[in-house]
């Protein structure tokens, strides 16, 4: 049975992110290869991945080459660094679907790049990226930036276990 994964903020090709976020890589090439390996170690060909933005700083040829190596059906929810390129560009680069806006998944989860305002009385959960190593308090937010998950896509079922009491699942 196919699985669903979520991840954000790979920043492929962004040399300075290694220093900005204290990433454990010697250079961009090592970062790229490690992140591709970690993706494919958990994501199978039949699985789906929601990438919650800031995927690549590289040109079309290099971005497409990375996309071709990544397993799964890939949906991009565009992040602030992705918006300089069109939806069509990202589709041509290899994403199967692209959204310029947050989407509702499973009727209960808001998938967005930036964290969304969530009133504590709202019965929803915001799965997001953008803030890298930082984390919002409370069980209404799950940050899937690569820094929190050892650069590995997170199984949606594991995210649900973090935020939905077991009797409601």
Automatic annotation (TrEMBL):
It comes from the Bacteria. InterPro entries: Metallo-depent_PP-like. This is Phosphoesterase. It comes from Paenibacillus contaminans.
């Amino acid at each position: 049975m196919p699985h669903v994964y979520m991840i954000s903020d790979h920043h492929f090709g962004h040399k300075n992110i290694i220093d900005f976020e204290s990433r454990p890589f010697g250079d961009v090439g090592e970062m790229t290869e490690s992140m591709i390996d970690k993706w494919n170690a958990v994501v199978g060909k039949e699985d789906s991945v929601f990438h919650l933005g800031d995927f690549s700083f590289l040109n079309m040829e290099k971005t497409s080459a990375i996309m071709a190596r990544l397993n799964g059906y890939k949906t991009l929810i565009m992040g602030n660094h992705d918006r300089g390129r069109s939806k069509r560009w990202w589709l041509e680069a290899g994403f199967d679907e692209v959204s310029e806006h947050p989407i509702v998944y499973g009727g209960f989860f808001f998938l967005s790049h930036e964290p969304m305002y969530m009133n504590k009385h709202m019965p929803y959960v915001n799965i997001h990226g953008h803030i890298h190593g930082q984390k919002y308090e409370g069980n209404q937010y799950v940050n899937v930036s690569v820094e929190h998950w050892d650069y590995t896509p997170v199984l949606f079922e594991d995210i649900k276990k973090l935020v939905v009491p077991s009797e409601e699942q």
